[in-house]
Amino acid sequence: MLVLASASPRRKELLSLLVKEFDILPADIDETPYDQEKAEDYVIRMALEKATAAVNKYKQQCNAAIDTLFIASDTSVVIDGEVLGKPNSLDESKSMLRLLSGRSHQVITSLCLCNLNRDHVATKLVVSDVLFRNISDVEIDQYWKTGEPQDKAGSYGIQGLGSIFVQSISGSYSAVVGLPLFETAQLLAQFGIHSLEDMSHE
């Protein structure tokens, strides 16, 4: 059994392309970066902590099966070394999108896959470069009204209307959305889950 430690509908949709059946067990953790913590270290730590929290929650709530695997991921938008979280207001959204406007930024996505006893833990980091065109304040106001930016790191969703701001991308599109499919398939294979082979047995 595979457990996805996320409530994100985007990660659920992407993982379903690789695995037919999995459970969802969101893990609530403190996502505050440490002082002077590098963005890459922060994103990896978030995935590790989400996986660990899901393991602990699973052990408390379920009849824990020893062969259960847990997958967690974290995606952060980074510019000038600063991690941009999710905006809590229009003002925060404006601040983020103005910062990204007309510039290139990084989207860093981490993966963590582990077993129930956490004696087999694998992590992966995927970095993509995204270039935004110039964005006007009117566009930012209208975009906020759609509701799309409000639960997105960096205040935009590349898989939605936010894609109109993206001039180019270098890296993994699925990682920017929330789950890098190539790297996820590689990690799953390390744990004995081979996506295309499993789906061929329908």
UniProtKB/TrEMBL annotation:
Nucleoside triphosphate pyrophosphatase that hydrolyzes dTTP and UTP. May have a dual role in cell division arrest and in preventing the incorporation of modified nucleotides into cellular nucleic acids. It catalyses: UTP + H2O = UMP + diphosphate + H(+); dTTP + H2O = dTMP + diphosphate + H(+). It holds the Pfam family Maf. One of its GO terms (biological process) is nucleotide metabolic process. This is dTTP/UTP pyrophosphatase. It comes from Marinomonas ushuaiensis DSM 15871. One of its GO terms (cellular component) is cytoplasm. Belongs to the Maf family. YhdE subfamily.
